[in-house]
Structures are given as C-alpha cells and as structure tokens.
Amino acid sequence: MAKNIILSAIVGYTYDKIDLFLTSALRNTSADILLIASSPSAQLRHQLLSSPRVKLVDVNLQGEPAEMVFRRFFIAKEILARIEADEILLSDARDVYFQSDPFGVQGVLFAEEPQLIANCKVNSSWIKKYLGEDEFQAISPNPILCGGNHVLDATKAFSLTLTTPEEIVGLPESLLALAAQAAQAAGETEATPEAGPWRITLDFPSFGPFLKYSQRRDLREQVYRAYIRRATEGDLDNRTLIQQILELRRQKAQLLGFNTYAELSLASKMAPSVEAVEGLLEELRVASWDAAIADLEALKAFAREQGAPEADDLKQWDISFWSERLREAKFAFNAEELRPYFPLPRVLEGLFGLCQRLFGIQIEAADGQAPIWQSDVRYFQVKNEQGEAIAAFYLDPYSRPAEKRGGAWMDDCLGRARFQLGDRSISRNPVAYLICNQTPPVGEQPSLMTFGEVETLFHEFGHGLQHMLTTVDHPGCSGINNVEWDAVELPSQFMENWCYDRATLFGMARHWQTGEPLPEAYYEKLLAARTFMAGSGMLRQINFSLLDLELHHRFDPQGTETVEAVRDRIAAKTSVLAPLPDDAFLCSFGHIFAGGYAAGYYSYKWAEVLSADAFSAFEEVDLSNEAAVQSLGRRFRDTVLAQGGSQHPLTVFVDFRGREPATEPLLRHSGLQAA
C-alpha cells in the first residue's frame, strides 16, 4: 500500500537536506511524494506533476529571490529523477515529515545516519523529549512573519528624485549614472547622468555613496532618517513582530530545556557559552573604545578645519561624509578613484589566480553548460590539479533592485554527495551560488568595482570555496552544511586578507581602458587606510553583537523594558554617538529577525579572530616565500575547506594552525595593538 512521503517547506531548504531525507527515509518505490513548495513556476509545476506519484501543495510565499525559485527547480528535478530510476529503495511504513526550521534548531528529524546526528548538537531527540511535534511547530516563528519582506517593500517604497545641479554637488559620476538608470526605470525615459533627473534609493549601491559624497547635509539627513525608519509604518511595521518573535523564541528555548534562546543558539555553535562570547566581545570592546573616541574627535577637528558649522555637533548622517573627506585628505585618494583599476573581469582573473596559487584549482568559464535565471548570470567550472571537474558555481554580480535584495551572499545549489545505487557508486559535485549587488555595466563600460566591493567578492567566494572544495561525501555535513554558525565566516574573512597581498592585488588591479597597473602609491595608501577608523568599525560590530545577545538572553519580552531601551543601554558602552530618538534600525535588522543570526551576530567577530589568526600563519612563513605559501595553502584547503561540518571547528582550526586561536592577530591587523 502506497504511503505518503511529505517534504515540507521546500523553499529555504537546501537540496542536500531533502536528499538526506530521501536516502535515509525512503525505501518503498510505491510511495507517493507530496511536495510543498512556494509559488512554483509553471515550469516547475509541470515537472512536478509529470509523475503520477507526485502531488504538489502550492504555498504562496511572496518576495523570494530568483535564485531560490531556481533552486526549487533543481530540487524537484533531482527528486523525480532519482525516484523514477527505480534504483532508490523508498522505505518506511509511516508518514515522514521533514519540517523546515530556519530559526535555530538544527538537525534532521528522522535521519538515521549516526554520523550526522553525532554532529548535530540540537536534534530531533530533544524535540521528542520535551514536546510533541505539533506543539513544537505551533511556537516556531514563521519566517514570513519576520518582516524580511516588509523591509524589502519599505526599501523600494522610498526614493528621492534630484533635479537641480545644486542637489547633486559632490556626487561621483558612478552614482549619477546609477541614479539616472534608476530614474529611467521609474519612468523618466529621458534621464541622463549629465542632465538628470537622478533617483536616489535606499538600496545600498545608491544609499551608501550618497551619504558618503553628497555635500547637501539636509538631503543626507533626509535619506538617513528614511533608512533607519524602514518597516515602521502601516502594514509594513515590524515593531509588533519583533516582540512576537522574541517571545516565541524564548518559549521554544524553554520547551527544549534551555533558560534562554541565546543558550539554545550557542548549543549548536563553536562558542561554549554566552559568558565566553561576552568575554571575547568585552576584550575587543576595551581595545576599541578609546580608538573610537579618538576617531570621532579627529572627524570633528577636521570638519572644524574645513569651516563646517556642524563640526562640534556631528550627527549620524555626517559620519560617513566626513570620514570620506578625512580619508581623502589623509591618504590623498577616494574610493571612486580606484574603480577604473578594478573592472570585474580582471578582478575575477586575480581571484581565480589566487585560488590556483593557494589551493591548486583551476576555474574556467562554462557559460551555456547550465541554465540560468537572468541574462547577466555567469556559470563557472572548478577543476583539481589533475584537470578533473570537482565543482561549479553561478555568479550573479549586479544590483537589480526591483527583484533582488541588497547585500551579497553565497548559497548552495547542490552539495557534494556519494550514492550507492545497486552495485554502483555515484558521486555528485557541489554547485554554489555567488550573489552580489555591485554597480552594473553602463554602456560600453564594464562593472567597475570599489575596493570594498572587491573585498566583498573575495569574502563571498571564501564561502563558496568551503562549499566547493569539501572532500566529505555525506551531504548533511559536506561543504558549508553542519558547520557551526560562528565558524562559517572563517574562510570568507580569511579570503578578504588576500586583497591586501601585493602579488594578489597587482595581479588584478589594472586600468580598464589603458591596462596600466595600479600605481604603487595607491597600494601604499590602501595598506595605510586599512586601519582607518578601525576602532569605530570594531565598536559598531560589537554593538550589534551585544544587542543581539541581550535581546535573546536577558531581555524579557513580557517585561516593562522596551527593545528601544535595551538598544540605548547597550549603546551607552558601545557607541560614541547616542542613537537618535526615532532610530528604529531594529525593524530592519534582518540578520537577527529574518536571517540566521539570532543570538549569533557575534559570529562575525568570533570568526574574524579565527580568520586573522589563520592568515597570520602565512605572514609567519613570509608571504613572498612562494613554496611555503603554497604548502600552507594546501593545508588550509585540506583542513578548513575540505572537512566541512564533519569535525568540530576547533578541531579543524587546530589541525591547520597547530594551536587554539588567539585575538592578537586581529587586534594587530586592525591597528589596535602594536605589531
């Protein structure tokens, strides 16, 4: 008798986890397959319904990124191909539920593989011990309720149209071109970079440069206030949702036997306790506080020298502007000057060359060998030292505000796995997504990147390398899967360091028109500017980290203290400028309310300690010692990148470094401790 096999909430779930479910739970070829998907495309719907054994439940979830829809097609295609092969034994006499839980409880509810269960610190046994599945799901926050779509809608709802030369004073050509494109897309078909009109939005490629370069302080204030008040009005107001989410998370933690959600979160992370995290953050805070105070005083002094009337009372919308002016004066260049030296094609060549140098891999364009979801998307193949294909990845590089959320990220399309089909062993190579939001090409000009965008590309590719260079065949812990959240940024932040390596930088920094290499003076200034305002930058991340922990550890959603009061209390020791009374940035703090960083934002700094220490190993053998660098690079590949989530991250780090991590390299790299 056929049994229903239920795969719940495909959207947001990786193929690997569904694949793990199939290989561990299904052994009866007569089973029916019930797929619950979010707004499947017509193509996906046709693919699903082409098998008489597949039933589809369409859940209407709006606002998905295009690559997520594309991923679902891969999932459905692979599932159907494997089921219809009649070589997979589907097995279980009972109905099986594979429930997504994007808010903290990791593990597979019905997995039978002891290796995976051993590596999951929070798994189904805890759920079964403390409550039934129905009760547990009843208090699991729905990701749609987290307001991520509210933030996206609020971001798109605001725009500032500039029409006069006085309103664009100070804006660089790249921003004027982008703003004119935005105006054209909004219906101003005659808009040009030279004559306008120019449309400024809250998408970061527009918002960030506007705050940095606009000489109109009143307009900077208008745009900044709109940014910090996103998702606070009407149907898009997230304030009530924040309270609900924090309360539901607290209930979930207590039902699972924890005192707080922060304790639940850390149970599946590298950090041993909330106290250990707070101890690390306090060590970094103490090292950063005086430097951040000095940063602000330096900005005031510089603004005063320039005759700025606001010099003694700088506000949040002034910091980026005066920081950039001070940077220009101190280092005699601005971020826009470097764009011509970082065309995307050359940067990719440099990145791929570094990967060959360190990890012995070759990366080749493979456009046309796989379907894409948008015409700008690229497809690449990764080969090992023997020339064998071992992985592939998509690159979706450009900003598309109407359909693509801001920021940059890496995700997995397919994960490495090995299957036993009868007497045959079949392996599957990993495929990754690399999504960025940099300035698109304008006319004949290629995408010209700021140095910050170069660092972002290297960062996200570090995630991709961990996914693609894994040697673990178990899909549940290969690549980025099952890696503790506070260790997952180690490869990405490690790769950022190489942007400052002479051989790497000069291998990619050439003028897009003349081919001339980046002038040596610029390189020296980049090195000097690396620690510019480092105390302020460090303190900002510590502020976010401690606020996140406080909300998920000590804050009582049913108590009298408000989340705004918590924000102000934490800011008193982590921010040299007090928050504005109408600052509602928590309503758009997607990392902890709509992403995976709840009680885990500290992971950035925790992993930064790991990555700085890892890179210091290369410094110790001398970055110009090519043989030593290559040898160490292979060791990094064979430990950090290869072992994925199959080992505890401290074990993996010690395998590479030979000892436990230390904070000294991070403080030294940040200029907060003497070399």
| CATH top level class name of the largest domain | Mainly Alpha
Shape field: globular
Helix proportion: 40-55%
**Proportion of residues in β-strands:** 5-15%
Spans of 5+ residues with little confidence (pLDDT < 50)? Answer: 1-133
* Alpha-carbon distance between the two ends: 71 Å
Q: How many separate domains make up the residues?
A: 4
* CATH structural fold name of the largest domain: Neurolysin, domain 3
The mean pLDDT is 81
Strand order of the largest sheet: 7-8-9-13-10
What is the architecture of the largest domain at the second tier of CATH? Orthogonal Bundle
Quantity of strands, as a count? 13
- Given the structure, what is the number of helices? 27
What structural class do helix, strand and pairing data support?
alpha/beta
Major sheet characteristics: 5 strands, mixed
Cα-atom radius of gyration? 25 Å
Protein name: Oligopeptidase A. Metallo peptidase. MEROPS family M03A
GO cellular component, one term: cytosol
Family: Belongs to the peptidase M3 family.
Pfam families: Peptidase_M3
Tell me what the structure shows:
There is one protein chain. The protein has helices at residues 15-25, 42-49, 66-84, 114-119, 124-130, 133-138, 148-157, 173-185, 204-213, 217-228, 239-255, 261-266, 274-305, 316-331, 335-338, 344-359, 451-468, 490-497, 502-506, 520-529, 534-553, 563-574, 590-593, 603-621, 626-641, 649-657, 664-669; strands at residues 4-7, 32-38, 54-59, 96-98, 159-162, 198-201, 362-365, 378-383, 389-398, 409-414, 417-421, 424-428, 431-438. The protein contains 27 helices and 13 strands. Helix 13 packs across helix 14 (316-331), helix 17 crosses helix 18 (490-497) and helix 18 crosses helix 24. The chain folds into 4 domains: 4-92, Spore Coat Polysaccharide Biosynthesis Protein SpsA, Chain A, CATH 3.90.550.10; 154-229, no CATH class; 239-332 and 534-600, Neurolysin, domain 3 (Orthogonal Bundle); 339-530 and 604-670, Orthogonal Bundle (Neurolysin, domain 3), CATH 1.10.1370.40. Strands 7-8-9-13-10 form a 5-stranded mixed sheet, with helices on both faces. Mean pLDDT is 81; it is low at 1-133. The protein has 675 residues and is α/β, with parallel strands linked by helices.
